[in-house]
Write a structure and sequence with these properties.
Blueprint: E1 7-12, E2 15-20, H1 25-29, E3 58-61, E4 64-68, E5 79-81
Parallel strand pairs: 1-5
Antiparallel strand pairs: 1-2, 3-4, 3-5
The chain binds FE2/S2 (inorganic) cluster.
């Protein structure tokens, strides 16, 4: 098995998810959730651009708020929370 296909296990909102190495956190979240959090008006957020511009995919990763899930690669043991407080509304 090549390193690119090594399974990586992480937690998304307390649920165990396994994806291949090289996947983005956004791809891992998509395995178990359809929303990436909420805006101030309680509407649901989800990735729009997929290239780091819109911040609609921001989540908490290992305790750090407002990380862009589309720009972050999965790491073994990572803890992802999709319920971060909105930064920009
Ligand atoms: S989807 Fe736009 S910044 Fe991640």
């Amino acid at each position: 098995m090549s390193a690119a296909h090594t399974p990586i296990r992480l937690q998304v909102d307390g649920r165990s998810v396994t994806v291949p190495a090289g996947f983005s956190v956004a791809a891992a979240i998509a395995q178990v959730a359809t929303a990436f959090g909420t805006r101030k008006d309680a509407s649901l957020r989800a990735p729009l651009c997929g290239m780091g511009l819109c911040f609609e995919c921001r989540v908490r990763i290992d305790g750090a708020d407002h990380q862009r899930a589309c720009m972050t690669l999965v790491r073994e043991g990572m803890r992802v929370e999709t319920t971060t407080e909105p930064a920009h509304g």
